[in-house]
Amino acid sequence: MAPLQPASWFNKAKKAPVAKAAPSSPKRLSSTRASQPPPLILQSSIEKPVPVRQRSNSDNSRASGKDASPLGKYESAPTGGASMPPPSAFELQIIKQKDATLGLSLGQLAGGEPGVIVTKLTPTVANAPVKGKTLFKGSIIYSIATPQTGGEFVPAIRFRDVAALLRDAEGTITLKVGRAAVPEGWSERVDDNHETYYVHTEKHLMTSDHPAASFEQA
């Protein structure tokens, strides 16, 4: 029987030496910052220079709030072929306040006759002094003078131009007018509300517009 060994020797034999691993070199961390993008090269999308429009005198006048001529927008209306008002034409004046309406519906005369015809006349404060006295449904406007025309008469040729001039006018408006005859076959009548209308018996037509106006206008 082998002799007993002291306990200290048993403990040393049980614990074998553990080899230590060599210290590893520290890991190199990669940079998380994104790489810089290549520099941008800006290129113009315009290959040819844009021509610069020179300001005309009319542009300068409009920019300053003044028209190049007293006729303003109405100066573009053609004057060729416009005839003088007939001797039976007379003048009437209407005072129009700012933003007021004259209650006039206008149209071209049938057959290319000179002047612009009043096809309808709605009562307003502005036309009250002349409605039914010197201005009627069927009145023909031959020429017109407003503060915008410098007080000078200009021929009434296109009804849209005349309507625009009357709409923009402020102050005293002077018209040279006449009275259109009712065309053959038509008769003028008055309803219970004292409104004038027109009847063509043979064609079985009835209209509130004066029949002397062109019905083919755009």
What is the topology?
Elements: H1 7-14, H2 57-63, E1 90-96, E2 104-108, E3 116-121, E4 139-145, E5 154-155, H3 159-168, E6 171-179, E7 186-190, E8 196-200, E9 205-207
Antiparallel strand pairs: 1-6, 2-3, 3-4, 4-5, 4-6, 7-8, 8-9
- Continuous helix count: 3
Q: What is the CATH C level class of the domain at 66-78 and 85-179, in words?
A: Mainly Beta
Q: Mean pLDDT across all residues, rounded?
A: 74
Please bin the fraction of helical residues. 10-25%
> Which series of helices and strands comes N to C?
HHEEEEEHEEEE
Kindly name the structural category.
alpha+beta
- Provide the CATH superfamily of the domain at 66-78 and 85-179: PDZ domain
Q: What are the low-pLDDT stretches, counting only 5+ consecutive residues below 50?
A: 40-81
Largest sheet: 6 strands, antiparallel
CATH second-level architecture of the domain at 66-78 and 85-179: Roll
The portion of residues forming beta strands comes to 15-25%
Query: What Rg do the Cα atoms give?
Result: 47 Å
Distance between the termini: 138 Å
Counting DSSP E segments of at least 2 residues, the number of strands comes to 9
What's the shape?
globular
- State the CATH topology of the domain at 66-78 and 85-179: Pdz3 Domain
What distinguishing features does this structure have?
single chain, 3 helices, Pdz3 Domain, 3-stranded antiparallel β-sheet, alpha+beta, globular
What does this structure look like?
Residues 18-27 have a biased composition (Low complexity). Residues 54-63 have a biased composition (Polar residues). Residues 91-181 form the PDZ domain. Residues 180-213 form the WW domain. It comes from Prymnesium polylepis. A hairpin with a 5-residue loop joins strand 7 and strand 8. Strands 1, 2, 3, 4, 5 and 6 form a six-stranded antiparallel β-sheet that branches. Strands 7-8-9 form a three-stranded antiparallel β-sheet, with no helix packed on it. Residues 40-81 have low confidence and may be disordered. It has a domain at 66-78 and 85-179: Pdz3 Domain. It has helices at 7-14, 57-63, 159-168; strands at residues 90-96, 104-108, 116-121, 139-145, 154-155, 171-179, 186-190, 196-200, 205-207. It is an alpha+beta fold and 218 residues long. It is 11% helix and 22% strand. The termini are far apart. The chain is built from three helices and nine strands; from the N terminus they run ααβββββαββββ.
